[in-house]
Design a protein that fits this description.
Elements lengths: L8 H12 L4 H13 L3 H6 L7 H15 L4 H5 L1 E4 L2 E4 L11 H9 L8 E5 L5 H9 L4 E6 L2 H14 L4 E4 L11 E6 L32 H9 L4 E10 L5 H10 L3 E7 L5 E7 L13
Parallel strand pairs: 3-4, 3-6, 4-5, 6-7
Antiparallel strand pairs: 1-2, 7-9, 8-9
Length: 291
């Protein structure tokens, strides 16, 4: 982008949108300019002729160049909104996706007690745990991640949002203190190691440890399904996000491990993106089926 002309909002945004490309180049450009200037995106449309100081314009151009190289907007901003919560993000965590909000919606609709104990496994930014905490202040929520930087980030988000979530460093259940829960919830890695999408788009910049799970993408889900009942109260639930084409395989894993009331649900795009199942026990009954 040339820097010789007057640096108005509209001039900067129009030129940036041309080079960024992709599905939403104008939105990407507005988010980056808002980040640099501190101005709201609506102000760019209301006052397109507003002049941007040279230092801010140069910083904006630097961010646009990094976006053109493929770096995700969330990493450039250091923040991503999820469930209307502003979450800090970093390269040590997966960027929260809108479709994962469907997992939160499903969890909130489950027949759980008012003081339910909930465990979010592989929490990353803390997105799922914090979304649940924002809606259910009576729930006692713990979150885990095996990456120390992710644990620090989730704790920082918990403090920033003033939402009480206990965050523990643990690889799945390995370092957890003895406990039992009413809900185990997770967006685990589920992409096959050979998937071509790992070398495309924003995913290239996200940590492989948060994406890849063996040859068929189901290694971590197998572990969670196999060990999960040991950490649940009788009649407790497990809810897992997975790939758009993995619902049948995940259902079969739950069935083979003796879970009940197995059901897959769709995301906003109409894909079966999550599966839930219930641990057998004294409280399991027809009335406890997922709504």
């Amino acid at each position: 982008m040339s820097s010789n002309r007057q640096q108005t909002c509209e001039f900067l945004l129009s030129n940036a949108a041309k080079v960024i490309g992709g599905d939403s180049p104008r939105v990407d450009a507005e988010l980056l300019l808002s980040h640099v200037t501190g101005l709201g995106r609506t102000s760019f449309r209301t006052w397109p002729e507003r002049e941007i100081p040279g230092q801010q314009a140069e910083r904006f151009r630097e961010l646009v160049t990094r976006r053109v190289e493929g770096q995700p907007v969330a990493y450039l901003l250091g923040e991503q909104e999820f469930w209307s919560l502003p979450l800090k993000v970093s390269r040590s965590t997966l960027i929260p996706r809108p479709d994962t909000e469907c997992v939160v919606e499903t969890a909130l609709a489950l027949p759980l007690p008012a003081d339910a104990r909930v465990l979010d496994l592989g929490t990353g930014t803390g997105a799922i745990a914090l979304a649940l905490a924002s809606e259910k202040p009576g729930w006692r929520i713990m979150a885990t991640d095996r990456i120390a930087d992710a644990v620090d980030l989730a704790r920082a988000n918990s403090r920033q949002l003033d939402l009480p979530v206990e965050v523990v460093q643990s690889h799945w259940f390995e370092q957890l203190p003895a406990d039992s829960f009413d809900l185990l919830i997770s967006n685990p890695p589920y992409i096959p190691a050979s998937d071509q999408h790992l070398s495309e788009g924003d995913v290239r910049f996200e940590p492989a440890s948060a994406l890849v799970a063996g040859a068929d993408g189901l290694d971590d889900i197998r572990l969670l399904v196999r060990e999960g009942q040991s950490w649940l109260n009788p009649g407790g639930w497990m809810l897992l996000e997975h790939g758009y084409d993995q619902a049948r395989a995940v259902q079969d894993l739950f069935a083979a491990a003796g879970w009940l009331n197995i059901e897959s649900r769709k995301d906003y795009g109409g894909n079966h993106r999550m599966t839930l199942a219930q641990k057998p026990g004294a409280t399991t009954s027809e009335t406890n089926h997922a709504p």
